[in-house]
Amino acid sequence: MTKLSVNVNKVATLRNTRTLEIPSVVKLSQLALDAGAHGITVHPRPDQRHIRLADVSELAVLLQAYPAAEYNIEGNPFHGLSEHCERVRPAQATLVPDAREAFTSNHGWNLIELDAAARAALARAVSELKALGCRVSLFLDPVTDMMPIARELGADRVELYTEPYAAAVAAGRARESLALYARAAEAARALGLGVNAGHDLNLQNLGQFVRGAGPIDEVSIGHALIADALELGMAETVRRYLSLCSSTGA
Questions:
Q1: Which residues are catalytic?
Q2: From the CB of residue 7, how many other CB atoms can be counted at a distance below 10 Å?
Q3: Domain count, the chain
Q4: How far is CA 224 from the centre of its chain?
Q5: What is the pTM of this model?
Q6: Is 115 strand, coil or helix?
Q7: 100, 46 in Cβ contact below 8 A?
Q8: Does 99 score more than 90 pLDDT?
Q9: Considering the domain boundaries, does residue 250 fall inside one?
Q10: Cβ-contact 178, 212 below 8 angstroms
């Protein structure tokens, strides 16, 4: 079964519009875990516009009560991710090439175009995070030629950036897009890399993705899942996403 990690950034975004500390990032994360989610994801950015420093620590404490669940921290390794991971030692660190001013993640690492110095710096970041006990995943576009480079850099997994897939589904081009992801995932697995996926996956496109590009180890879903939770409640929403993550999902 593909594991589901719930990204709670948007819970923090809503909370930060007031000073009342509601909704609670920890409470909503607990509801997700109690409903069967396999983990919690956060993507703290330097400006703390959603996830704050305190959230990272408080969620680490929460996850201690759920030993089967995993804590995944995403971010740019050169903009503070490593410091977060050194403090709380998450199960997984997902390296994303976001610029500081990026509105949201909008591309993966272009490993092919990195010069020697940039590759060396990224390899050092991977090595340092692994030394902390983190499984390391690199956020990549579905390009098969990048998978050997990810392996050379020391990554344990890749996370395939799925916004292009979501756009293709909306445009009626799902089959063509899925073929790209399936080839990239196959290339990664052939090298011994695990395969995660995330960005703009939702109740309408997740099942098709898991069946067509799989096997996928984990999906990290935030924006759509939190939006669905406003209508359905967190527990019911998690159950519906888990159904789609299973091999028998519709």
A1: 43, 74, 199
A2: 25
A3: 1
A4: 13
A5: 0.94
A6: coil
A7: yes
A8: no
A9: no
A10: yes
